[in-house]
Amino acid sequence: MVATSEIPRQRRPSQIQEIRSRVSTFRQSVCEHPVIKVLPEPPENVEHEVVDGPDGGYGWVVLVAGFFCVAVLDGYCYCFGIFLDDLVKDLKVSRSTISLTGSLLAANSAFVGPITAMLVSKYGTRKICMFGSLMAGIGLLLSTFQSEIIGFIICYSVMTGLGFGLMYLPCIVAVANHFVKLRSLAIGILMCGSAAGSFMLAPLESYLEGNYDWLMAFRVTAGLCLLACACAVLLRPVEYVEITNPEVDAQREDQENRTVGWIERIVTLIIDKDLYRHNEYRFYLLVMAADIFATLGIYIPYHHLPPVAIEAGLSKEEANFLISVIGISSSVARIGMGYFCGKQLVHPITICAAVMTAIVPAVLCCTIATSYPVFIVLAAIFGLCTGSWVVVMSPLLVRILGLPLLNPAYGLVTGIRGIATVAGPPFAASAVEYFTSRAVAMYMCGLSMGLSALIFTAGSLWNKGKTRRGYTQI
Q: What's the rounded Cα separation, in Å, for the pair 126 and 233?
């Protein structure tokens, strides 16, 4: 009897030690910085090659955290129209003024992209995303105590907009850093946070606004921003380690010692120095030019497709549902194209050229369509193509510049997109008023997408004309 009672006591120390070992292993997997080994660009080639790095594991936790952050910030931006009438009544200003506050929020969240990239490079994704979430939450909370439009713009459009901008880029960079083979798929899932946020927040905000008021809705959203701050804690930083290459080290030393001109000094105040000196910087500028034209056109159908469909004979409900079709098909494309792009069967810039080319006839056909099923098909094509373009941009930048430069490169692209986002729909609206035709807006969208397709195609041909090393991810 004594012997049997002593056996469990003898095993307890080993069991406790095993539990401690497992806890320690889990703690290390969460707290330690994963290492990404990259091959520096050789003199005769242009692409960084990821030799080794994390691929999933804790990265799925990072993906879920980033997904929630993107769902909150993008979903709320798309729900602003719910509060339009109440804000006009309480702040005693015109509808156009209130609409301007929503546009300024979206613009500020994009304009801050280059600054966010610099801050992420210095302080990491976790700290910047946490700071942005707190800033956005505080801005939303303070905006509920404003009775004048100036105070509302400062708290809502500026503070909250800048906070959302500080949240967005760290999520993309953090997810990209925690995946190698599945990076494109992971980024595609992350990008679906926008549609998921719109789907979940729209009924929530409508319920709060209808049963309480816009003040309660804003304060609940501020609480969601605090939850996003808690999720940002999970964005574990990573460490880049480059495999040494004597030839590359010598070349970089020569670049560091060369005389820096006044133009470079000015440019590198905004653009990362390594990005500006990269061999593929001109190719990057070509890609960014194509992205600008695509961004100019992408939001025009969201504003002008329903009126065009109503003029063609569709009911208001049917016309408004076309926007939902675009959102659903865009989400499907982001996951599907993310998975396909991860297979590396086709260069990302070729995919961009193909989908932009396919958009043009779909947009132009909207001006002559007369039946509801045709409009559904055209809206689905637009959503599939734009969703594919959005999700492919990150892998494209990694492909031509390397993973270490994704942060500054995507940050600059985001900032330029802000300008195009603000300029596109108003310019199309002015053209509609001038020509007194809704179809003009769709023509402008087709023209903008066509120019983007031409530039992406030129980049694809430029890429094929060069002798490149195959880009592999191990």
A: 6
H/E stretch holding 345 reads none
Q: Rounded distance, CA 251 to CA 41, Å?
A: 10
> Taking the CB of residue 36, how many other CB atoms lie within 10 A of it?
20
Residue 264 three-state SS: helix
Total residue count of the chain as it appears in this document: 474
- Tell me the HSE value of 255 on the side-chain side, using a 13 A CA sphere: 15
C-alpha to C-alpha distance for 278 and 246, rounded to whole angstroms? 18
242 burial type by CB count under 10 A (0-12 exposed, 13-18 middle, 19+ buried): middle
Torsion of CA 215, 95, 198, 159, to 10 degrees: -60
Task: Pull the structure tokens for residue 203.
Answer: 């009924």
pLDDT digits (tens, 9 = 90+) for 208-263: 877 888 888 888 888 999 999 988 888 877 766 665 555 555 555 555 555 566 67
In 3D space, the residue among 243, 237, 256 whose CA is nearest the CA of residue 122 turns out to be 237
Q: Are 99 and 80 spatial neighbours (Cβ–Cβ below 8 Å)?
A: no
Q: Measured between alpha carbons, how far is 406 from 67 in angstroms, rounded to an integer? A: 19
Which residues, 6 or more positions from 343, have their beta carbon under 8 angstroms from its beta carbon? none
Predicted confidence (pLDDT) per residue in 351-373, tens digit:
999 999 999 999 999 989 888 89
Q: What is the mean pLDDT of residues 91-119?
A: 79
Q: Can you read off the two tokens belonging to residue 226?
A: 């605090």
